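Hi U.,

Before I forget, here's the chain from the pilot set. I'm dumping it here mostly so it's searchable later in email.
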Amino acid sequence: MTGKLYGIGTGPGDPELITMKAVRILGTADVVIVPESGSDKGSIALEIADEYINSKAEIITLTFPMIDDEAEKKTNRMKNAEVIRDLVESGKTVVFLTLGDPMLYSTYIYMLELLVHSGIEIETVPGVTSFCASAAAGNTPLAKQNEELRIVPLSKDTDIARHLKDGDNVVFMKVSSDSIRLADELIKADGIMECLISSKCGRDEEFINHDINRLYDGVPYMTTVMVKIKH
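Structure:
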């Protein structure tokens, strides 16, 4: 019997946003892999997918620590990839869960890179991204006609001013790491037509706001900021 690995995006938070294809596969899974950082308090991806998972499926948590040591991270990823490969080679249907879409800033990408040439069968099932769901929740178009759309993961090295100067529409992700600096740059920038702040999109605690000053209060990890600029 031949096994298979599925990378499944659960969407950002609302279980009703998970795709029909993902639901079908989850219902036949033998094993569901749940990635965690080591300091997580439960898995949001698992919460989203839980009602669709085969009741007989084995749930396995694999730890991907958020550390600075790249060599240690690589070793950890290789060990986790080996666990997944062994399960698939034993004939199991294995699902790797990830929030949002598997091909955008996900832990699944590292497993895919290590396993794609290993000889096992792999299929990736897309999911709704946080910024697409947030745009819909706020009735805010991401881009129209020939406008540019930029997706920017915020870090201490991000040149925020440059993106605001050059872009038409900018989506800042991973905002909680530097929300105060982002607020400062947004207030200084010229031509800001609209700013939408979305936290915990699709969950009971969902928060949608247009007030840049809210960024000074600090924001949850699952926060996205969408900016429309007039040049």
